[in-house]
Each structure stands twice: as structure tokens, then as C-alpha cells.
Amino acid sequence: MAGDISATMRRHSPASRFGEGSMTERELGSSLKGKIAATLIGMACAQGSNGEINFASPFVDDEGVDLIFFRRGGSGKAVLAQVKSRTMQSKLLSQGTFRVQVRRASFKPREGYYFIFVAFDESGKGLFDTLWFVPSVDFEKKLAGQTNETVLVFQSRFSSRDMWEEYRTSLQELPHRIAQIL
Fold it and tell me: pTM of this prediction?
């Protein structure tokens, strides 16, 4: 299964410029890993749109927003995104399953608010090419039957036909999807 996962990876990594293995010299905390993944997503969208899409990161993450995307020149619209990431060191991910939890207490679905579920290889190889771009309103509807009172669980495989298939996209396609919204 690991071979299949490696095939979905591409080197979309500004981090790889810092030298092979530089991110593995010390253990990264989950907060730092999340910030790295969000920054790489933002940079990929800015670059992939030839600078038409810009992004900002809130100073405080108390609304579940990691990135704010907006069109250069200002259309007045914005896409708010929470980035949920996993690394290759995750046991489930190494078996081809992407799984994350979203705390119900901090989840406030609304128009213009999206989840970006992405995996990355912290050894410097960067983000996986396959990711999920899910409107928060759809996320809530699809998981309405989950009974856990504290978390909602997103789980999918990189090539499966499941309820998340329509939201699966590539890192190269993500800027175009965001631009359509903006």
C-alpha cells in the first residue's frame, strides 16, 4: 500500500529547498506541522494561480481558520479555510487511509468556510498531490449521523469511491477551485 501512497506524492515543497532531511533533525510538534502544511497550501495556491490568489494567516486561530484566500486586486470575497494535515508517520496514512478529527466545540459551518485535508511528508518531500477541499456546510451534512459528542471524523482513501470522492482534487487544481469561488 505504501507504494500507492508514494505515487500520489509530488514535490510541491518550498521546504525541500532547506536541504534533504532538514525537517527530520528534530521532532516537529503537531501545531508546527499544521502551520507548515497550511503555509505550503497557501504558497501552492499563490504560485498555482500566477499570483492572482493571495493568502493570509490569522494571528490567532480561535475561529478554526488557518488561511484566508482572496483575489489580488480585491473582489471583496474571501475563502476561509481550516487545514487539517497528517504526515507519513501516521500509521493509518502509511496504510493509505487519511483520517482526522474535527472538534465539534470549535466547528462552526458557514458559507465561504472550507476544510482542506492534506497529507505531507515531513522529510522534505512536501505535500501530497491528492487532497480534499470540502465546504464546511457539506462536511456537516455528510457527517450528521456520527454519534461521537466531541469530534467529527473525516476518513477517506486516496483513490476510493466514497462519500468524499467529489471533493478530492489535486494540489495543482486547488487554486482553480478557489478562484471559481472568489
Answer: 0.79
Cβ contact 128:118 at 8 Å: yes
CA angle 142, 31, 23 (to 5 degrees): 115
AA letter at 136: S
Cβ neighbours, 10 Å, residue 15: 22
Cβ–Cβ < 8 Å for 124, 23: yes
> Under CATH, what is the fold of the domain 2-181?
Trna Endonuclease; Chain: A, domain 1 (3.40.1350)
Cβ(172)–Cβ(48) below 8 Å: yes
Q: For the chain, what are the domain ranges? A: 2-181
> What are the residues whose beta carbons fall under 8 Å from the beta carbon of 72, sequence distance 6 or more?
51, 52, 53, 54
For residue 179, which phi and psi values (nearest 5 degrees)?
A: -60, -35
Q: Encode pLDDT of 151-161 as tens digits.
A: 988 888 887 78
